[in-house]
Amino acid sequence: MNIVLGSLLAAATSTITVTGTPPSGPAAQRFVAQVAIAAENDVPLARFTAPICAGSVGLPPGADAVVADRITTVAAAAGLRIARAGCTPNVMVVFVKDGHEAVRTLARTGSGAMLSQSHADVVRLLAEPGPAWAWSEVETLSRDGDRQSHLDTGEKSLKTVTSTRLSMPIRRDIVSSVVLIDREAAADRDLRQIADYAALRALTGAKLKGSATEPTVLTLFTRERGAAAPDGLTEPDRAFLSAFYAVRADMAQPLQRQRMVDRMARSHVTNADQAP
Question: Per the omega criterion (within 30 degrees of 0), is the bond before 131 cis?
Fold first, then answer.
C-alpha cells in the first residue's frame, strides 16, 4: 500500500486538540450503552493488568512505528503500565489485504492469537462486515490473581474466597488483543486516528453497537459515519477509557458499567497528547 508522505508526517508530528468537557450523567449513560463489550452479566469485564506492549505490522516501518507509539501514549494516559523496550507485543494492530481471509487462516492454523476463541467466536468475527475486526485472549483468575490449576480429569479448577454482593471471586485479565484492519480502508486515514480507534478497541473490547448517539472514534470504520469520524479519541472516549480502568476488576459487569457511568460524569481525564 502506498502511504501518502504528508499523512505520515502529520501523524508523527501533529497534535490532536481535544475540546469539550466530560459527558454529563445522561450522556455518559448513553455512551456506555452504545458500546458493546463481550462479557456475560455475571462475570467482570476483561482488562489488561500486565504492562502494555504495542506493535503494528503490515505498513511501512515508519508508519507501523507511529501506530504502535500512539497506542502506547493512549494507554499511558489512561493509567496503564507500559512495558520496557524490546518487549513482546500484547496489543497488536495488523494491516491485511483481506481481513475475513486473515481470520479464517488464523483459526484454521490454530494460531496462538486465537487460542481462547471458540468456534462461535470465529463465526461471529467472520459475520462482521469489516473493514476492522478485534478480539482478545482472556484468562480467568481469582480476584487475587491466582491461576487455574489442571485436575487429573483434564478439567480446570480455581480456588477462590466467597464473593459478596459487590465483589466477585474472580477477575478476567486480557492476555493479548488483536485488531485487524484492511489496508485499503486505512489508506486514506490519518495514522494516529487509526491508532486511537485500535487502542480503544484493544484496551477495552469496545465495539459500536448500532448508531452512535455520542461522539466516538469507534465510528471510524462504519459505513454510516466513517467519512465524518472524529480526528481521534473524543472526550467521551477518553473518559470511558479512564473509567474502564478505574473501576474494580472483581465486580459483576452491570455494577462495573454503572460505576463507569458515574466516574465519567464527574471526572476529568488526561489528554493523551499531554501524557508523559
Answer: yes
CA-closest candidate to residue 14, choices 191, 221, 234, 183:
191
Which of 146, 165, 149, 126 shows the shortest CA–CA distance to 42?
A: 165
- Given a contact cutoff of 8 angstroms between Cβ atoms, the answer to whether 31 and 37 are in contact is no
Q: How far apart are CA 184 and CA 186, in angstroms?
A: 5
pTM of the model: 0.83
What is the identity of the amino acid at 41? N
In this predicted structure, the answer to whether residue 152 has a pLDDT above a threshold of 50 is no
Distances in Å between the Cα of 184 and the Cα atoms of 3, 65, 211, 214, 221 are 11, 19, 24, 27, 12
28 grid coordinates: 455518559
Beta strands in 190-236 (DSSP E): none
Residue 182 has phi, psi (to 5 degrees) of -65, 130
66-78: string of b/e by CB count within 10 Å (b at 16+)? bbbbbbbbbbbbb
Instruction: Determine what percent of the chain is predicted with pLDDT higher than 90.
Output: 53
